[in-house]
Amino acid sequence: MRGLPGDVWIIFATTLVNRVGTMVLPFLVLYLAQGLGYSARRAGFAISVYGVGGLVGAPIGGRLSDRLGPLRVMQFSLVLSGAILFVVPLVRSLPVVFSLILLWAIMTEAVRPASLAAITSATPGAQRKAAIALDRLAINLGMSVGPAVGGFLATVSFTLLFIVDGVTSIASAFLLTVLLSKRPLPIEVERVAGAVPGKVVRRNRQMLIFLLAMFLIGIVFFQMDAALPLYLVRELGFRPSFFGLLFVVNTVLIIFLEVPLNLATSRWPHRHVLVLGALLLASGFGALAFATAAQTIVLTLVVWTFGEMILLPASAAYVADLAPTDRRGDYIGAYYVAFGLALATGPWMGTLFMERFGALRLWVAVFGAGVSSACLMAIVADRKPTVVAPGSRGE
């Protein structure tokens, strides 16, 4: 990891500070229901509002990264998201609260494509998977602290959640500014793009097929948010604590294994890594059709966690390699939109399918969706990107 550019470590530190303070979103519904006294239905709608903001914020953040620079977008978005959080506890009107949540989501989710664009722009192709895995390590380390601390703060005051989350957002922007002022001049790296330099996302058939593949595998991946807990608790009779334990295992595996795993596969062709990751995710969730004991369920978790650790850094690195230099942020924004759509529809589709056709058919269908995604990735990732000089443009 010593060979990674300094910008990658700067973003790692910024992400870690920001994620350590992530505690409003996990307790947002509880705040609206208990803190403000709104109904569960209205409180739950806040998450949908946040999801819509994420779908808007990702492409905006990506496009602004191409025009203003990803690091500037990160600074601006982090400061504004923190400032909005200070205002939310002062408001009681639900429409105003929802409006602030929407703006907060746009600012917060704009950081994601900007940070990924900064990482991939600072690293050559062979280092991108490891650099992205390092960023995911910062996210998982922070998320293992933030919600836990937030649980204690919520017992004292919900307002403290907003204050701490807002302070850490602004603190991460300040840290980013300070570290950037002390860095050496960034090193120019080789720029890699798709077959046609400068092509916009909607005209790049290779990218569109890949986005469809990511949407399909995203539907598989996000079954962990709805269908999986229902299946374990309602169908198999496990306690909710068992489902929580699975997330502990998932997080521990990611923290200790994802970076070295991606270092080991850093020079593998995109096609091999993407297909392997998608098939592992498909197999892990599909095997739930036959897993009824605790040991076998944990085994399926290990399988799809390895798929997650392989696929997510590799898919982001592939998009960065496929994107024209002058549109990298735009492509990464589209990548996050595909995943956002999967998050918005996948859990609902999975629970509806399980209600109508049963859990066995759900996991078989999920396996089929994952295999279909792997096939699409095998088709598009087999095409080798071409090297394009910095500054090349096209339609």
Task: Give an overview of the whole structure.
- This protein has 395 residues and is mainly α.
- 77% of the residues lie in helices and 1% in strands.
- It has 2 domains: 177 residues, MFS general substrate transporter like domains (Growth Hormone, Chain: A); 196 residues, MFS general substrate transporter like domains (Growth Hormone, Chain: A), CATH 1.20.1250.20.
- It contains 15 helices and 2 strands.
- The chain has a two-stranded antiparallel ribbon.
- α1 packs antiparallel against α8 and α13 runs antiparallel to α14.
- The longest helix has 30 residues.
- The two termini are 37 Å apart.
List its traits:
395 residues, mainly alpha, Growth Hormone, Chain: A, two-stranded antiparallel sheet, 15 helices, globular, disordered C terminus
Question: What's the CATH architecture of the largest domain?
Answer: Up-down Bundle
Residue share in helix? over 70%
Radius of gyration of CA atoms, rounded to a whole number? 21 Å
CATH topology of the largest domain: the name is: Growth Hormone, Chain: A
Q: Give the neighbour order of strands across the main sheet.
A: 1-2
What summary fits the major beta sheet?
2 strands, antiparallel
Q: Let me know the number of strands.
A: 2
- Structural class label: mainly alpha
Extract low-pLDDT stretches: 190-196, 384-395
CATH superfamily of the largest domain: MFS general substrate transporter like domains
Count of folded domains = 2
Strand content: under 5%
State the shape: globular
Order of helices and strands: HHHHHHHHEHHHHHHHE
N-end to C-end Cα span:
37 Å
Which whole number gives the mean pLDDT?
89
Number of contiguous helices = 15
CATH class of the largest domain: Mainly Alpha
